[in-house]
Amino acid sequence: EEIQSVFNLVNKVADTDSTILIGGESGTGKELIAKAIHYRSSRAGQPFVSINCGALPENLLESELFGHVKGSFTGAIRDKEGMFKVASGGTFFLDEVGETSLAIQVKLLRVLQEREIIPVGGTAPIKVDVRLIAATNADLEKAVKEERFRADLYYRLNVIPVLIPPLRDRRDDIPLLVDHFLRIASDRTGRVKSISKASMDFLCAYDWPGNVRELENIIERAVILQDGDEIMPDNLPSKVCRHAGERRGLNMDDAQMTLDELEKQYLVSVLEETSWQKKKASAILGINASTLYRKIQRYGLSQERLKDK
Predict the structure, then answer these.
(1) Burial class of residue 203 (count of CB atoms within 10 Å of its CB; 0-12, 13-18, 19+)
(2) Using an 8 Å Cβ cutoff, are 14 and 41 in contact?
(3) CB within 8 A of 254, min separation 6: which ones?
(4) Opening angle at CA 62, ends 56 and 64, nearest 5
(5) What confidence score (pLDDT) does residue 36 get?
(6) What is the pLDDT of residue 256?
(7) Do 93 and 133 contact (CB within 8 A), yes or no?
(8) Long-range contacts made by residues 215-220, C-beta under 8 angstroms, separation at least 24?
(9) Is 284 helix (H, G, I), strand (E, B) or coil?
């Protein structure tokens, strides 16, 4: 429901030229939303150009954005078009706009107000026709109050705000995303994989600080490392399993707990939850009954022994 409301907003605003500010944590897919807006717009046949404002030092960023004229600085051996010019007729995506300096912000404001740029070292303004989409994982309102971000630029950018919820707030999406990334990783590696129910439970319980990007990386890693046809809990990072154990109320005080110890606690939790109905427990765990019996024997588990403890 949460991401569907984002898509509904995308469909409403796509075929306009209004400036859009996409907010959301790192890894939520802000550039994907920007591309969705572009390819649903009348500018879809024109360039989609993007730049990460936090990835370049100020002097280089200014040249990349607005271009420069020959001789404007050391190394400027020829005129260079800026990315605003390259994106003319299309969409320009400014990622991490909150990382720009105040000097760059003044020039961005000019683009929004006058629809023109002045290259570094130049004097004549150049008209540009671009639809601007900006994105940030920072609190720009706070940055405005702290005078790190210009208020006038903020209000020019924030014409239509689009906020992408973090993955932990839309857990129903996790199985769909897992299936999607499994197909991608399987196509890439030639290894057809499925995922056990226990592994899916772990993934759905994890809070995903790195959001969708972190999930994609973990699925790719699991597909590569798993020897069989099914991704099991021991193919997942221990932090994912540990977090799921904490959510189930397991004792996770020891940060050095091994995966075997974690699996044992998880088995006991599910067996007690099902009153030791092994068929039901194996269905919840996503393993067959014979595998469950082997694991019970391996860890020396029995209902009577646990009661004695």
Answers:
(1) buried
(2) yes
(3) 261
(4) 70
(5) 96
(6) 47
(7) yes
(8) 215/167, 215/174, 215/177, 215/178, 215/181, 216/177, 216/181, 216/184, 219/178, 219/181, 219/182, 219/185, 220/181, 220/184, 220/185, 220/188
(9) helix
Quote the CA–CA distance of 263 and 270 in Å, as a whole number. 11
Q: How many CB atoms lie within 10 A of CB 165?
A: 17
**Residue 198, helix vs strand vs coil:** helix
Residues 6+ apart with CB under 8 A from 78: 70
What token pair was written down for 266? 């998880």
Structure tokens at 181: 């990334």
pLDDT in tens, 59-92: 888 888 888 777 566 666 677 778 998 999 999 9
Q: How many angstroms separate the CA atoms of 20 and 285, rounded? A: 44
Most distant CA pair in the chain: distance in Å?
A: 86
Token pair, residue 44, equals 């879809």
- What pLDDT is stored for residue 74 in this prediction? 65
Residue 126's DSSP bridge partners are 117
CA–centroid distance for 231 within its chain: 22
DSSP class of residue 166 equals: P
Q: How far is it, in rounded angstroms, from Cα 285 to Cα 147?
A: 53
Cα separation, 19 vs 109, in Å, equals 12
Q: Are 297 and 264 in contact (CB under 8 A)?
A: no
Distance CA 292, CA 299 (A): 11
* Residue 94 φ/ψ, nearest 5 degrees: -100, 100
Q: For the chain, which ranges sit under pLDDT 50?
A: 252-256, 308-309
Tell how strand 80-81 and strand 20-23 pair up. unpaired
Mean pLDDT of the chain: 85
Q: For residue 222, what are its two tokens?
A: 């699991």
Distance CA 196, CA 266 (A): 14
